[in-house]
Amino acid sequence: MFLFFRIQVQHGYYWNTVCGTGSGTVHEFQLHSDEKIIQASGKYYDYVYQITFVTNKGRTFTVGQPIGSSFNFYPVYGQSELRYFTGRYNPVGLTSIGFHWGVPFSASRVGLEEDSQLSSGLISSNQTHV
Length: 130
Fold this sequence. Notes:
Blueprint: E1 6-11, E2 14-15, E3 19-20, E4 26-31, E5 37-44, E6 48-55, E7 60-64, E8 69-73, E9 81-89, E10 94-104, E11 122-129
Parallel strand pairs: 1-4
Antiparallel strand pairs: 1-2, 1-3, 5-6, 5-8, 6-7, 9-10, 10-11
């Protein structure tokens, strides 16, 4: 059994690079301008078989097949969102995945004027891995 799946996410006008294995269909997920990913869940056994993302607007995006044990990750802090995810794969499929959560820096929280360099930073981050 081959477990190829590929994901690409769009937020605003920005598309991330294609993530995943193989040369199969790319599953695209478009976030609206005020939308954030606030939960990631799925199924795994010896490989990651399924991933589901949930947004703050209640939309879901699922790729893969529901095989194996469940995992479910969400941020510890209320204003956090999924900033990026990482993983490992081999020629058969995805062997691990990590979700990295953080709160986007907001100049208004510390009484500073808006600064484009600062706004890309993170106030806090926690990491979760399967």
